[in-house]
């Protein structure tokens, strides 16, 4: 199993995010450290388009791979790394977001092992039960509907499925499942996905995983008991993570 961490410097809401200091280390080092808890150093890579991020990774002994600056998603960036390093089609690659310094390492192992164990799946991802109806209604929290075999049938920003006979969102009536943005792919899937045009559903929902479903790929969903700590999208998120790691 390989772990690739896409890390863009030019974040619109928090420029230079991968190098933000958290407890005396750049954020990207915290993410790499989580990956190193479950993968050998030779199998952990940071994919970046910025020399400053690559230099910071090299300074703490990590591996950085320079990629193009025009990628529209982390999946595209990871596919470039897989091609550049000549990985075999059946190699499993876990995509760990570069702004998740608090991601529990066992989840990285879980998603990679789930794909390895399911020969029918092209990808694997993670979900957890919603605990508040207001969160189900929040379009920034993506919902998953799964099949009886534990594969994804759809991802949406809407509250799906719609409870026709109920009175609003009732978590006791239906266990809505929240998507956690952690993915494992086979290299062959990365090649195929990045060669395909965006799906209509993907373009409407702005969810890249819908491309895989649109084209008939199978996504295994592993369910965890609760959501991991939030990532860093804004300056406020950064301060919250700093407080957690300082304590």
Concise structural overview:
With 247 residues, the chain is an alpha/beta fold. Helices cover 32% and strands 21% of the residues. Strand 2 (21-22) and strand 3 form a beta hairpin.
List the helices and strands and how they pair.
Blueprint: E1 2-7, E2 21-22, E3 25-26, H1 27-36, E4 44-48, H2 51-59, E5 64-66, H3 74-84, E6 92-95, H4 105-117, E7 123-129, H5 133-136, E8 143-146, E9 152-156, E10 177-186, H6 187-195, H7 200-205, H8 209-214, E11 219-223, H9 235-246
Parallel strand pairs: 1-4, 1-6, 4-5, 7-11
Antiparallel strand pairs: 2-3, 6-10, 7-10, 8-9, 8-10
Helix pairs in contact: 3-6
Give a structural overview:
With 247 residues, the protein is α/β, with parallel strands linked by helices. The protein has nine helices and eleven strands. The strands form two sheets. Strands 1, 4, 5, 6, 7, 8, 9, 10 and 11 form a nine-stranded mixed beta sheet that branches. A two-stranded antiparallel ribbon has the order 2-3. Helix 3 (74-84) crosses helix 6 (187-195). The longest helix is centred in the middle third of the chain and has 13 residues, at 105-117. The protein is globular, with a radius of gyration of 18 Å. The protein starts with a strand and ends with a helix. The model has no long low-confidence stretch (mean pLDDT 94).
Give me the Rg, rounded: 18 Å
Helix content: 25-40%
Sheet having the most strands? 9 strands, mixed
Mean pLDDT: 94
The number of distinct helices, counting runs of at least 4 residues, comes to 9
Structural class call reads alpha/beta
| Shape field | globular
Spatial separation of the terminal alpha carbons: 33 Å
As residue ranges, the low-confidence spans are none
Fraction of residues in β-strands: 15-25%
Instruction: Encode the helix/strand succession as letters.
Output: EEEHEHEHEHEHEEEHHHEH
Please provide the count of β strands.
Answer: 11
